[in-house]
Amino acid sequence: LVHVPRYSNSSSLQSAALSPPRASDQQQQQVEHSFIHSSVFVSVHTHHTQIMSAQPNLRYAVGSTIAPGDRICSARKCGGGDGTYVRGGNIHASAVGKLNLVASGDAFVVTVVLDGEKQYPSSQVLSVGHVVLGRVVRVITQQVFVEIVSADVTGPLKERHSGSIRKEDVRAGATEEIEIYASFRPGDIVLCRIISLGDSRRYFLTTGEAELGVIRATCSSCRENMAPLSWKEMECPSCKQKELRKCAKPQDLQGNSKAESEER
């Protein structure tokens, strides 16, 4: 039975309403607050425990140095990233570096980070459509041989690649009108696009676009750098000698052609 106090008048009722809570009520409130805090702590701890338990079991600690062939973990609970490969249901290292574990959504990915600023050889692979920078090393009647030193996607190449510009790929138009010796000279710096992987020795390149071609050439008389006059002619600023080249369209800092800038 619950005892309900009776009050003789309204003043007694108001004083009872304004009176502070009893000790039993304060204890009940403290119990409720402590229960809420404990519930939040338990839920957070449980979530953290689930995340920790979801991590794959690695044979090596994160940050440790591993070598090619080292078995890192099972491929069932983890994915392989850069510097790894999968064999027999396990993830192995394919390079020497530091082991790294990255959370990708609900899954984990292991990678091997190379020391310093080294890049993986796969990032240096050229493909069709890449714009490359090269140096003309030899000119013959039907084609030009180029040493590729850089690409727009990969940047400077650690290993030099060989390419060739065939007569029909020098510029758009009639092939019969093109003269290789009037388009390139040994030592010219050219901007080309890869149109084919070619054979096992070199890539096939083209300078058929207006933005492609010779971007730097030296005068055959005074060895000064020449400036382009048109798409097929360059002039030496020192001796004023003119030479034929397949020139790339000059670009200013805003990416506009030189002719468009002069019209403005």
UniProtKB/TrEMBL annotation:
GO biological process, one term: RNA processing
GO CC, alphabetical: cytoplasm; nuclear exosome (RNase complex); nucleolus
Keyword Ribonucleoprotein assigned: no
UniProt-recorded Gene Ontology molecular function terms: RNA binding
Pfam families attached to this UniProt entry: ECR1_N, EXOSC1
SMART domains in alphabetical order: S1 (SM00316)
SUPFAM superfamilies, A to Z: Nucleic acid-binding proteins, Ribosomal L27 protein-like
Name of the protein in question: S1 motif domain-containing protein
